[in-house]
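Checklist before submission:
- one chain only
- standard amino acids only
- sequence pasted in full

Submission:
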Amino acid sequence: MKIEQIYTGCLAQGAYYIVSGNEAAIIDPLREVSPYINRANKDGVTIKYIFETHFHADFVSGHVDLAAQTGAQIVFGPTDAAIGYDALIAKDGQVFEIGTIKIKLIHTPGHTLESSCYLLLDENGTEKALFTGDTLFIGDVGRPDLAQKVSDDLTKEKLAGMLFESLRNKIAPLPDDIIVYPAHGAGSACGKNMSKETSDTLGHQKITNYALNMALSQKEFVEQVTDGLTAPPQYFPQNVQMNIEGYDNITEVIERGTQALSPEAFEEAANHTGAVILDTRKADEFSKAFVPNSINIGIDGSFAVWVGTLIPDVKQELLIIAEDGREEEVVTRLARVGYDYSIGYLKGGLKPGRLRVKSWTI
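Returned file contents:
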């Protein structure tokens, strides 16, 4: 048996690659799926299941593309959502076999209604690991305010109450030596006080994580979990919908966004498409030369959060200015959070004195 955590720092997100025998499972894959397929091909195994812990808000999962390319079964916990692709809606306690191990779905509503954890049992039936999604982080729990809009009477306080019950009744009784593998670490907007550590034993979390403090009443828990929540990025609800309904193939998105445009073609597109010009260079480079009306969000900073703040509609068409050689990286990172409508980039980048097209002299 092998468990590999595939951590992406810019999103503070952990996906998981699990192998037993000649079969594999992926938990919460990122949008670009080739790394998982390459790992499986290298190991000579078949990806059998794609387990989703919930409908993610902070990124677009790769489950749809990965299933299309591998034939793997997508699995969600209990939900009434109108999913736009083939998926298995599992029951609480349902067990899945991968090689000689088993994965048990544990429905843990609270962060969202369908939130579920996946308990791994080894070939001897021993409970070894718990993949907690956004239900339980290292040092924190998932915020309970992201699913409020599902119905008018669903408040963050009600969701926090559900989360309390899930933690007390479903997770706390598990053995202390189980390894907790969450979907996020420090830097994610899905929690408040996450640790920089990306895994821990459940026993240690019972000692150090305030949310697993058994002395807290439900009222006290709800007050602590809901206190100090800041507004999430505006793209979060749109990402949820994409994860439920489906989305364009990532290869098509990258091909569309990495069209190299001459200065003349770039200006033509800017003037006639309504696209936002997104300059992803460093701020000091932007200050030396920039296209009028462009937005500067450096690719090396908190890129996704600032894109979501300054460009609220994921369907907004985008024209890209990037450092030479980083154009595909920009388009890929935009697509990870649902911005699929990049329509090209300025060929050769932007340097002082280079661009002299009508009013764009710099």
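Reviewer check: The CA atoms of residues 244 and 353 lie 47 Å apart.
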